[in-house]
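so my prof wants the structure for this chain in the tokens format not the other one, which i didnt know existed until like an hour ago. anyway here's the sequence
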Amino acid sequence: MNSQKRYPAVFPKIITPFVLLTASLQALPVFIGTNTGKNSVSKGIYLADFDSASGKLTEPVLAAEYQNPGFLALHPTKPLLYACGAPSQPFPDGSSSVAAFAIGENHGLKFLGEASAGGKGACHVAVDATGGTIAVANYGDGSFSTIKLGNNGVPGAAVSVIKHTGTGPNLPRQDGPHAHGVYFDKANQHFFMPDLGLDQVFVYPFDAATSKLGEPLPSLTTAPGAGPRHLAFSPDEKHAYVLNELHNTVLAASYADGKFTALGTVQTLPADFSGKSTTAEIEVHPNGKFVYASNRGHDSIIVYQRDATTGALTFLQHAPCGGKVPRHFKIDPSGKWLLCAHQNSNTISVLPLDPETGRLGEPANTVASPSPICLLFGR
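here's what i got, hopefully its the right format
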């Protein structure tokens, strides 16, 4: 697809910070992280409005210019947005960056500052519950870091930078460590990092006062070659679900006080599918009854029924996602819609979701969006 022809003037200019996008009282802002590489026409972070009453998503507009703002996160209390990406000016060590943006009254973005991500190829970020720490996963060199946030929310120097060693059996994807996700528990006492290259979800104690990670605790080990990418907790945090990119599986585990216990694994692809596909994102429905994951290649969202007592998953549905390569998706706060970002078809589709049955319907609408790889609902 020639994306230059597809988007001759769809995203013509940046939003002036704090300019109103729409007057809809039902509208929620949706921030869109993108790939700004040489084959993309994206220029940074985009912004659309989502009407939860109708399922209508507006055409995205450029909210802030930034290089490769691949993954986004919000500050828990302040009107701040964070993105990992490439720095405005290269750092001496060649590391990636994490940047802070002020969110205006009407959701416009204003760049505040950036800092080194502590490693190369940053791909995932998370902010702790106090808003004092941001964590970054650096897929490129396999490291991960925790960075202290200033009183103004701007990231400073990295406090903890850790890189494991080793390889996995699935070469070349597992030629070394590849940190792929960073997470904090609700108690803000533990930190988790799925490593695609080493087939483990690492666990560390976390000190919110200092932003430091302690000595590692026992990790959760997946099947050899599985390639854990992301994870999602149930609302009560009694169970966690690890998405294995390379095996196209979900590992269910019980969880308590920093300790995982593996329960079982389920497939994400139909038994008769023979093409190439890898998983990308996983999310538990806010009501805790269903789990969703995306298949890139099969181009679908798989839906599982979740047993709240045992944590077990039962297949419900393979739903067409509405585009090519569903890199990321988010369930809206109402729990009635799933927004899916298609990296290769440069679109975002809105799928109706029945909170009672968990099932997804046909895409309600689809909008053009350049190289979308992360969706984030604002407040």
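also thought this was worth mentioning. Residues 1-25 have pLDDT under 50 and may be disordered.
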